[in-house]
Input
Amino acid sequence: MSNTSAHETSVYVHFPYCARKCPYCDFATRGLPASAIPHTAYADAVRNELRERAAGLEGRTLRSVFFGGGTPSLWETRELGRVLEGILAAFPRRSSDLEITVECNPNSFDDAKAAGLADVGVNRVSLGVQSVDDARLRFLGRLHDAEQALAALRVASRHLPRVSADLMFGMPDQESGALRDEVARVLDLGVRHVSCYALTIEPDTHFGALHREGKLRVASEDHYADMFAAAERAFAGQGLQHYEVSNYAVPGEESRHNLHYWRGGEYLGLGAAAVGCLAVGVGRAERYRNTPDGHAYVRREEAAEGPREVERETLDAQTLLRESLMLGLRTAEGVDVAFAEQRAGIPLATGRAQALETALRRGQVSLQDGRLRVPREQWLALDGIVASLF
Ligand code: SF4
Output
């Protein structure tokens, strides 16, 4: 896998609507029936933002486009296609293996949707399957059942060259054997990339409230560690590599968009709640965050009302190094030290020589071929290791 060129840029488009809010989710999204979503106005607003932001981006190469959410498969395909068309026009230079992904939910994904997405140029879908067990899907408050999830994966494989599935683990009553079976059922359909996340209880969610009231059990740390190991064994047995803490892929099928981000690549964010981060010379970058409210984002465009951005910060050299560690150490390939230093303009050891030496001595990180890595057997302790290097 080659490293990220300084001029390669990815684009993330956030779609802030879902059919219904899931009880564990704290993403910037609002539950709305498809008929109440401002499909065209939202696409117009994103295209306007793109026009304004793209003015300073001439000469860059487009690495990937990712429509995330929310549930972008709820967006009328024609409108999503208009946004994609605008992005492609803004970046005449594109990677030869340009990846264009749309996150989809099984209950808003069928043959017509898949064929439509392929028609407008999408070449990868990421399906929010979460589970292929009916009881677990009900627990998670999802709108689809196991058969719909599997049917959506079959449909996706028929129409699109690359398909990823999201699976969740770490539910209190989930046995490792059951997780192994779920992984096998998904991979049997030819899926070559899986994002496998632990259920986490976020405070500002329905699950968060239930947990505070003592009405929701969570998996113990030991149980979580068992599940993590079971998932790794199940994927390895089917030839998928654990290339990032929560992601598994057949070699060559890794998410190019996410790898670009974990490698410290630059990205443009468009839409409500979107975040973008672009370099401003060596050792400095500007990061912005848009208003999280989709309706406010659209109103702002229609009536030139209020600021689109709710946050903008300048990242200095040391912050850039911390980001490189935080993101790069999540991956099996680790941090490309030369690239991180080139981006920040200062050596990686600046201010952390002692901490690095200690982590190396303890075997919490390794340095080989210019890459700093956290060994896989230490991934469950990753957050603490990264914090010790901040
Ligand atoms: S569908 Fe996804 S983004 Fe939407 S509420 Fe559920 S978990 Fe959150």
Observations:
- Residues 24 and 207 are 5 Å apart (CA to CA).
- The pocket of iron/sulfur cluster is lined by residues 18, 21-22, 25, 27, 29, 69-71, 105, 128 (CB under 6 Å).
